[in-house]
């Protein structure tokens, strides 16, 4: 397993190089540059824009620019954000905790809901409760996230006033206090539910189908014959088997949650890296856009690796 | 197999992101659409203001870049926030004329200016404002390591260029006589020297130990900036909010509000947040007006702004070597053709349908708040008149020869106008179609350049590079307090996108900056003559002036807004 992991990690290197080329060329193919939107004849001059372009090396041939970027990257230097005039690493690190907090909350909500609903549905298939849950699930899968976000804000924030509609914190709270953390949680619940709705829906449905399928297996029949209680059969025997495919999803979740956060964060004005990414694209902040795209790509690769490794962990039949 | 899959996935991911990039504006449009459908069923009021006593929540729709010292700030949002923290030595009145504020000035010849500062003006850190602070700001802006966008505001001062090249230790033209007096000498006597002078001092005591190259990333600029405006910085949370508190020693008197919270919200939340009192003040879009007007506790203030929209014509290309426009594109050479295209536009219904009526129809490219604006009575009014348009076309030789309902050019060749417009909110699509329809109605065949609305950055690039596809293009300018229009319409200007070359216009624009124009009435007359020429020649069709719109909760009173934005924050208060 260790050698497999190492092989996979080594295999990522050429892939990452290829990705870096793709990311770089696509970023440069975006029309405009950080200065193209900035034309305000009273505030700036053509000379200034030209000078900045020259200083930042935007006038060099593309291969030269790529080489410079990759060399810096290899040395751990992600460059400087043209918008925030700070190292990209600092900009990302400032926002990252918010996104991670959102992702974890979202995962927790997803798992709790998916397990409860999925187990209920799987145990009582084709009942009214199951059908209601299924309707909810297909709705959750079919409706795009940005619509869910807007609708959620409209009902839960504006109509009912249960949750704040934007931001990650109420201004003026002292960091680290109990109120501070409760306020953060209060702010994160709505975006987290929105973000997790899609996976909740698909996990629930997945778990349900698996439980229904498993309940017709021979081992369940023999357990029943032995007189094992119904709840023990479902909660122990079946659940253990059904959980296997679900656990492996965790790997994919890594990338999906952070990728999905781009839309959710923007609508909820939740200052994480998703919102940063959109803003960076708007202002053509190349260094930030490229670093984040690389980060997302890396998370996807890494998530896949985790998923593959988890297969082996939860299912002893799989050998590497 | 799995590896291949993951590579594909990553690739798709990357492509999707960049695609998302290319359509940044469209996603904004989606949001707006949703917004209106969402609010339609909304007729409740819920006006219990959540804000505390004396606290104003000022919402902005884009995250600030975080540069809270003027001189480093480039984005409009940063400047809006800086208006609360900082103050300027000189301000402009409602006609955009310069008036003394913290400082007053005297000049004999428009070359040497003597400035006198009010005594006892305090910075937030308790230090007194002196001329040294101003000198410091000027030298930062002129410093070789300075990375902000405002060098233009000091380059006219004598010795600034030398200082920037490293040939001098000080900016020679800025002499501090004593704490409250300074003499500034400019390179040459120009009528708009004052308009192009940097008048925001920087707190020398706070910033002088930081190398200029590091200033824009220093916490003294980003997190705890010190100004002498009505509010001082309490807390900055990047991308989320900036919280400010009252500065008791503000030189114009203690501000009435105790706190101002500047909060970033997504534009799709504007109406809801104003409705439930979560925010008190926000600059809004014309699309939101209709919904907001139904709310009892929110008022909308309109202000004639400094922005106008126009339609430009292509006359040639820009010679980047010699920095001048070259007129070598003859398709729109006929003045009658351009006038006909103007008469053909039903601007009133365009404004009503696509801007909720929130724009003023004009016939000059000078914003009406500027003191040099020509009275509309002196200008030809190009009101909607399709018959007149047809007449003019006929006179200029544009006749329908082959009977297909559309005119041919004077040589009998097919005549098709390619019209370009940039992408944005949903209303842009309809507006573009309506303009094209107006022209087709008088017999001018019109095509949409590139077949679709062009992504904004691409559109700007096309204009910069004189792309052949943009023959006739929609544009908008927002200008500053300097009334001089030569930056946009002089034949040597890069931003004269139509590449209009007209000797008389150049002459008038130069005359407006000449020594004779030190006489204000003379200068005004010169610009009026220029506007008359523009109005006759129509190198672009000035369509309308946009109104700046603000949604304000009724309990916020004492609000002053002028063409440059919200002002006089120390007088704002909350009515109990």
Automatic annotation (TrEMBL), chain A:
GO cellular component: plasma membrane
PROSITE patterns with a match to the protein in the record: ABC_TM1
BP-aspect Gene Ontology terms: transmembrane transport
Coarse class of the protein's main subcellular location: membrane
InterPro entries: BPD_transp_1_N (IPR045621), MetI-like (IPR000515), MetI-like_sf (IPR035906)
Membrane topology: Multi-pass membrane protein
TM segment ranges: 9-27, 99-120, 132-156, 188-207, 243-268, 288-314
UniProt keyword terms in alphabetical order: Cell membrane, Membrane, Transmembrane, Transmembrane helix, Transport
Residue ranges of domain ABC transmembrane type-1 in the record: 96-307
Compartment(s): Cell membrane
Superkingdom of origin: Bacteria
NCBIfam families (alphabetical): Opp4B (NF045472)
Entry's family note: Belongs to the binding-protein-dependent transport system permease family.
Protein name: ABC transporter permease
């Amino acid at each position: 397993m260790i050698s497999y992991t190492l092989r996979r990690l080594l295999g990522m290197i050429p892939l990452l190089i290829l990705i870096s080329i793709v990311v770089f060329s696509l970023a440069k193919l975006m029309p405009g540059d950080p200065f193209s939107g900035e034309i305000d004849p009273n505030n700036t001059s053509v000379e200034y824009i030209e000078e900045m372009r020259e200083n930042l090396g935007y006038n060099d041939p593309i291969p030269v620019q790529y080489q410079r970027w990759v060399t810096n990257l290899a040395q751990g230097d992600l460059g400087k954000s043209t918008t925030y005039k700070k190292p990209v690493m600092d900009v990302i690190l400032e926002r990252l905790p918010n996104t991670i907090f959102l992702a974890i909350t979202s995962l927790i909500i997803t798992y709790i809901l998916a397990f409860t609903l999925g187990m209920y549905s799987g145990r009582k298939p084709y009942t009214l409760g199951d059908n209601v849950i299924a309707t909810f699930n297909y709705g959750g899968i079919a409706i795009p996230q940005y619509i869910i976000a807007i609708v959620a804000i409209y009902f839960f924030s504006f109509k009912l006033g249960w949750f704040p509609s934007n931001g990650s914190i109420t201004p003026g709270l002292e960091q680290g206090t109990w109120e501070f953390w409760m306020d953060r949680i209060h702010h994160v619940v709505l975006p987290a539910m929105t973000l997790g709705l899609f996976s909740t829906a698909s996990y629930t449905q997945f778990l349900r189908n698996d439980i229904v399928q498993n309940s017709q297996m021979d081992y369940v029949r023999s357990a029943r014959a032995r007189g094992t209680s119904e709840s023990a059969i479902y909660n122990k025997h079946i659940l253990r088997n059904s959980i296997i495919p679900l656990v492996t999803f965790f790997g994919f979740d890594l990338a999906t949650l952070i990728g999905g956060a781009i839309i959710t964060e923007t609508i909820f004005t939740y200052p994480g890296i998703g919102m940063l990414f959109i803003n960076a694209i708007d202002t053509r902040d190349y260094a930030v856009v490229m670093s984040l795209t690389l980060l997302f790509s890396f998370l996807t690769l890494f998530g896949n690796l985790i998923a593959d490794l988890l297969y082996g962990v939860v299912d002893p039949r799989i050998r590497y | 197999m799995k590896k291949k899959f993951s590579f594909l996935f990553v690739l798709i991911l990357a492509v999707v992101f960049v695609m998302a990039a290319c359509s940044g504006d469209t996603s904004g449009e989606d949001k707006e659409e949703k917004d209106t459908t969402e609010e339609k069923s909304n007729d409740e009021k819920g006006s219990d203001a959540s804000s505390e006593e004396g606290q104003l929540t000022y919402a902005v729709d884009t995250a600030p870049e975080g540069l809270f010292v003027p001189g480093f700030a480039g984005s409009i949002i940063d400047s809006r926030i800086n208006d609360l923290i900082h103050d300027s030595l000189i301000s402009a009145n409602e006609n955009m004329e310069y008036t003394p504020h913290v400082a007053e000035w005297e000049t004999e010849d428009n070359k040497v200016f003597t400035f006198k500062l009010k005594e006892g003006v305090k910075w937030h850190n308790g230090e007194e404002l002196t001329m040294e602070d101003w000198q410091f700001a000027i030298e930062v802006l002129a410093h070789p390591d300075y990375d902000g966008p405002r060098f233009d505001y000091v380059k006219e001062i004598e010795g600034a260029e030398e200082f920037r090249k490293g040939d001098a230790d000080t900016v020679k033209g800025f002499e501090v006589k004593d704490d409250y007096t300074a003499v500034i000498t400019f390179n040459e006597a120009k009528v708009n020297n004052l308009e192009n002078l940097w008048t925001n001092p920087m707190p020398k005591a706070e910033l002088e130990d930081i190398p200029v190259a590091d200033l824009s990333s220093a916490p003294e600029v980003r997190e705890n900036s010190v100004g002498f405006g009505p509010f001082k910085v309490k807390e900055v949370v990047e991308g989320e909010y900036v919280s400010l508190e009252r500065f008791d020693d503000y030189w114009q008197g203690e501000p009435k509000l105790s706190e101002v919270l500047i909060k970033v919200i997504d534009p799709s939340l504007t109406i809801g947040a104003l409705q439930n009192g979560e925010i008190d003040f926000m600059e809004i879009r014309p699309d939101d007006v209709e919904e907001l007007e139904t709310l009892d506790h929110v008022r909308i203030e309109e202000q004639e702004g400094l922005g106008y929209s126009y339609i430009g014509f292509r006359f040639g290309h820009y010679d980047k070597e010699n920095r001048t426009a070259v007129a070598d594109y003859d398709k729109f050479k006929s003045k009658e053709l351009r006038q006909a295209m103007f008469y053909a536009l039903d601007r009133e219904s365009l404004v009503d349908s696509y801007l909720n009526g929130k724009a003023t129809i004009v016939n000059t490219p000078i914003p009406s708040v500027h003191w040099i604006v020509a009275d509309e009575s002196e200008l030809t009014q190009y009101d909607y008149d399709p018959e007149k348009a047809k007449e003019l076309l006929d006179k200029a030789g544009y006749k329908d020869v082959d009977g297909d309902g559309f005119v041919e050019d004077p040589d009998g060749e097919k005549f098709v106008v390619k019209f370009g417009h940039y992408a944005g909110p949903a209303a842009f699509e309809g507006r573009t179609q309506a303009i094209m329809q107006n022209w087709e109605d008088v017999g001018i065949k019109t095509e949409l350049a590139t077949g679709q609305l062009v992504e904004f950055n691409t559109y700007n690039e096309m204009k910069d590079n004189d792309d052949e596809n943009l023959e006739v293009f929609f544009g908008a300018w927002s200008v500053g307090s300097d009334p001089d229009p030569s930056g946009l319409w002089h034949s040597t200007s890069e931003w004269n996108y139509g590449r209009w070359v007209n000797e008389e216009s150049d002459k008038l624009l130069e005359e407006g900056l000449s020594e004779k124009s030190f006489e204000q009435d003379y200068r005004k007359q010169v610009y009026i003559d220029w506007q008359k020429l523009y109005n006759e020649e129509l190198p672009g069709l000035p369509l309308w002036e946009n109104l700046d719109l603000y949604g304000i909760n009724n309990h916020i009173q004492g609000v002053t807004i002028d063409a440059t934005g919200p002002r006089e924050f120390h007088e704002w208060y909350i009515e109990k």
